[in-house]
Structure formats: C-alpha cells, structure tokens
Amino acid sequence: MHIVKPVAKIPHYTSANLQIMKNNVLITGFMGVGKSRTARALAAATGLFAVDTDDLIESLAHCSVSAIFAKQGEAAFRCLEQDVADWLASSVDKTIVSTGGGFFMVRNLMDLGHVFYLHADFDAIHQRLLAQPGGQHIAKRPLFQDLDQARKRYHDRLPHYRQKAHHIIETKGRESSAIALHIKDILLDQQLLAQP
Questions:
Q1: Residue 180, SS3?
Q2: How far apart are CA 104 and CA 78, in angstroms?
Q3: Residue 68 within any structural domain of the chain
Q4: Which of 14, 158, 166, 171 is the most exposed, having the fewest neighbouring CB atoms within 10 Å of its CB?
C-alpha cells in the first residue's frame, strides 16, 4: 500500500510579508578575527561603501561598546544590534557591513545580504590581538577580558557562525587584503558584483 503524505500548503506572499535578501556583503566572525580590517580592504578593492555595526551602535547610543556593556549590560547591547539590523534591512543596500562578534544572533541576518564568516581558531585570534601595539585590541573587547570565558563563548558560537553563513573563509596565515580579494573573487564569480 502506497501512502501519500499531504503536501504542506504553500504560503501566499504579498509585498508586506515577502522578505527579499539585500545585496549587501556581511562579514561575520568572532571578535578579533579581522572583520573590520577585511571590510576596509574589500571596500578599497571593490569601490563599495563599508559600515561597521559596532560603530553604528556607538553613534546610536552616544557611547562606546564597552561603556554600553558596563552600564547597561549585554542584553541592552543585543537589542541595539537588532535595531541596527532592522535599519540595515530598511535602508542599506550594496554595502559592506562588518559586524560585531555576536551580530550573528540578529533574527534577520540572512536577509541582510551575503554572509561571509571569517574563521580562525581561538588561539590564533588571541595571539593576533596580543601582537597588536598598545594592548588596546583586547582592552576594547569587554567579552575578551576573561580568557576562559572568551574561549567558551568562541566554541559555543562556532556552529552558529557556520550555520548562518553563505560562505566560510579561512583566515589563518592570510592578510586582510588577501581575504578581501578572495571575497571579491567569490562575489564576481557569483555575479554579485559588477565586473571592473
């Protein structure tokens, strides 16, 4: 006997509930992996405009990310990230967006554009931050102050970064400019970027 399963009803889409993916390039990954630097290099290589979600949040809140964490806590910061994501969805297209390490949690991430996850192992990220002059790169990251907690957070986030990405880019041993050119090649190959 052949059993036929009922076919799920196909939803009717209207302009009010149809979400079309934007033509942005989002760069995600753990804090300190080089997202902002790669975004700047990609902007230089493509001529596209680049924005940084942490910079947008600081403009919105009129204070630094570390001050938001200290005064209002992580939950308040995550609400601001969602506000920025909603603004990106309504107002930004054809732009490179470097994101904070937890931005992958916004509910509309995959609709904001083509997501490139920059991957490096935790120790490589930590060593990269330690090598920066002045120690400011660790000091400005509130969630990197406790190394054991940062490592746990990295491992907790890793599967989510991978799941919420269209492309995974390995960064170990590569300069930001080379990573940017790799992303540019992918965009050109998939006809997501106009040929020069």
A1: helix
A2: 10
A3: yes
A4: 14
**Given this model, what pLDDT does residue 126 score?**
86
Question: Tokens 């806590």 label which residue?
Answer: 73
Residue type, 192: L
Q: How far is CA 149 from CA 114, 153, 154, in A?
A: 30, 6, 9
Residue 7 lies in a domain: no
Beta carbons within 8 Å of 113's beta carbon, 6+ residues apart: 21, 22, 23, 24, 25, 26, 97
**Phi, psi values for residue 114, rounded to 5°:** -85, 115
Residue 108, domain extent = 24-189
List the CATH number of the domain containing 55.
Answer: 3.40.50.300
Say if 159 falls within a structural domain: yes
pTM across the whole model: 0.85
- 48-60 pLDDT, tens digit each: 999 999 999 999 9
Q: Which residues of the chain have pLDDT under 70?
A: 1-20, 134-140, 142-143, 195-196
pLDDT reported for residue 18: 42
Condensed to tens digits (0 to 9), the pLDDT of residues 118-142 reads: 999 999 998 888 777 765 666 567 6
By three-state DSSP, how is residue 51 classified?
strand
Query: Of 177, 173, 138, nearest to 32 (Cα)?
Result: 138
